[in-house]
User: Fold these one by one.
Assistant:
Number 1:
Amino acid sequence: MQGTGTNRNIAVCIILSIVTCGIYGLYWLYCLNEEINSLSGETNATNGVMVIVFSIITCNIYMWFWLYKMGERVDRIKRNYGMGESNSALMYLILALFGLNIIDYALMQDTINSVVGDAQN
């Protein structure tokens, strides 16, 4: 299974999301969606632009569904790359219900960084 991803500094992504009043956060969300879909082999899943549009239209309810699905894909990536078992879907949903989406993004980026870092070594 071969996918693509970018190794990003999580602290910088969080700081840029705060400093730009969430604009960088939308770009980061788009990138996370595309890279996780690629790494999990689900290239026909909803693209990043549609995730943002659906989240706005549904007043963020779609975001909860999306985070749950991303958790399932992250778990699939972890299994495929021998990173152990977890239940990321439920954890992402619970964090999102408390308004902590940025932590979900950081956890997703950490998985991408681990996979990309292993591929580069």
Number 2:
Amino acid sequence: MDAFFDFLGRVISGVFKLALGLAALVFMLSLLLASLLLVLGVSLWALLTGRKPAPVMAFQRFRQTSQRYAQGAWVRRPAGANGSAATGPRGDVVDVQAHVVPDDAPQRPMPKSGAEPMGRMQH
């Protein structure tokens, strides 16, 4: 009798797993179909109104803003001779003449405690 109940338990367990698998498959297919219909609907709406969809506009604004602050972040540079990324021009380089500051240079007086808030920090 135990063998019969074991067999029946395995059959019921298999049927239950099969039903859950089919339910998951139906859920995934319906989710895929809903997202496909949403993309088609938004694309059709964009074609009819002549406007780009809001997510596309948001990404374009993000990219324009990031390009303003991070020059070359979106551009892939070819590798240099040593395998590292080649560095392009990063801006103007200004060379200055180095000169020695004598020890007997006049010292500026330290500001009073209320005169300049950061004056106390420059010891």
